[in-house]
Design brief:
Blueprint (H helix, E strand, L loop, with lengths): L3 E4 H30 L8 H25 L1 E4 L14 E6 L5 E7 L10 E3 L3 H6 L7 E4 L6 E9 L2
Parallel strand pairs: 1-2, 4-5
Antiparallel strand pairs: 3-4, 3-7, 6-7
Length: 157
């Protein structure tokens, strides 16, 4: 299997989610199943079926987290530097159409959260930025049409 690039912060967040799901959520779900089972007939017991579904979703996420953490290639972004954009870079862009400034950090797929400014290294905008320098212009195809951005600043923090 191929290693998954991940920042230190992303690894910590996934590790914490794994801990919470295994040591807090799992026992709570087991208790809910036991309580629902005590109510009698399971065939028409909505609480039981809901708890079993919740257990299935939780166990699926635990397995996913185990795989992600096992394959993690943890990259300390603070030790990176340079003038070109690569994994871990925090990039300030200006949308050439609206003149609005946007800041994104390029992170691994598992830790991406666009609403908090963390975009996946495999996203179209990140792929367009990789290898570019401050002052360069990139064009990104989007569902609403192509957008042009000027790269203003590149920081590794």
């Amino acid at each position: 299997m191929e290693k998954i690039p991940m920042t230190i912060g992303g690894h910590k967040a996934l590790t914490e989610e794994f801990r919470r799901r295994t040591s807090e959520d799992r026992p709570a779900i087991i208790a809910a199943i036991s309580e629902a089972r005590a109510h009698g007939d399971l065939s028409e017991n909505a609480e039981y079926h809901a708890a079993k579904e919740q257990q299935s979703l939780n166990e699926g996420r635990i397995k996913e987290l185990e795989s992600l953490l096992a394959l993690a290639d943890i990259i300390d972004v603070t030790k990176l530097s340079g003038n070109t954009i690569k994994f871990g870079a925090t990039v300030k862009l200006i949308d050439e159409d609206t003149e609005r400034e946007k800041t994104y950090q390029i992170v691994g797929d598992a830790e991406a959260d666009a609403s908090n400014g963390r975009i996946s290294v495999s996203s179209p905008i990140a792929r367009a930025m990789i290898g570019k320098e401050a002052g360069d212009t990139i064009e990104v195809a989007a569902p609403g049409g192509a957008h042009s951005y000027e790269i203003v600043e590149i920081v590794y923090r």
